[in-house]
Specification:
heterodimer, A: 109 residues, B: mainly beta
Chain lengths: 109, 116
């Protein structure tokens, strides 16, 4: 079992819709969770981080954490074509981040 | 927000050349920096963790004599790819984080290395 799992996609949504990206992790002791966005040919960019169970909102982005289910999600409201990218879920392991393989999101005009 | 600068952004050189990549944290002190490699259409692969003032910790399968890491100050880490060969061509990305363990990593813009 991979330590951090994401559906590779692509996840296709129309412009204006809500995109829901999901991630599960195996280490029950994990405390910090991060979402990065990576455009093709570019380095990852931090979008959100969450430490506590529940929701955390920042603009059009909402991160959701459920430690009991070992599940993290990222919701993108009012999706725009510029949101098309690969979204990486990352979980704090021992002294390093453990990344999922990423979900590719395609937002069509 | 935290800014990490990486230089150069693009390198093309002949096989056998050694290439040095710099990673600087511009507005914060980073006791720990990380070096990743990413091949096309693949996920990030952690190569090593760079700790200021001490030896880097390399991931399994990464040759420490080929990928030399120096972290001499709280704002600068360097990765030197020694005697580079075409199979070393990749996208190299550094990241840095604040001291507290739960803080996020912030990434540099990456260095695209092409070995002819």
């Amino acid at each position: 079992q991979k330590e951090v799992e994401q559906n590779s996609g692509p996840l296709s949504v129309p412009e204006g819709a809500i995109a829901s990206l999901n991630c599960t992790y195996s280490d029950r002791g994990s405390q910090s969770f991060f979402w990065y966005r990576q455009y093709s040919g570019k380095s990852p960019e931090l979008i959100m981080f969450i430490y506590s169970n529940g929701d955390k909102e920042d603009g059009r982005f909402t991160a959701q954490l459920n430690k009991a289910s070992q599940y993290v999600s990222l919701l993108i409201r009012d999706s725009q074509p510029s949101d098309s990218a690969t979204y990486l879920c990352a979980v704090n392991g021992f002294q390093k981040l453990v990344f999922g393989t990423g979900t590719r999101l395609l937002v069509s005009p | 927000g935290a800014v990490v600068s990486q230089h150069p952004s693009w390198v093309i050189c002949k096989s056998g050349t050694s290439v040095k990549i710099e990673c600087r944290s511009l507005d914060f002190q980073a006791t720990t920096m990380f070096w990743y490699r990413q091949f096309p259409k693949q996920s990030l692969m952690l190569m090593a963790t760079s700790n200021e003032g001490s030896k880097a910790t390399y991931e399994q399968g990464v040759e420490k004599d080929k990928f030399l890491i120096n972290h001499a100050s709280l704002t600068l880490s360097t990765l030197t790819v020694t005697s580079a060969h075409p199979e070393d061509s990749s996208f190299y990305i550094c990241s840095a984080k604040l001291t507290l363990s739960n803080q996020p990593q912030h990434f540099g813009d990456g260095t695209r290395l092409s070995i002819l």
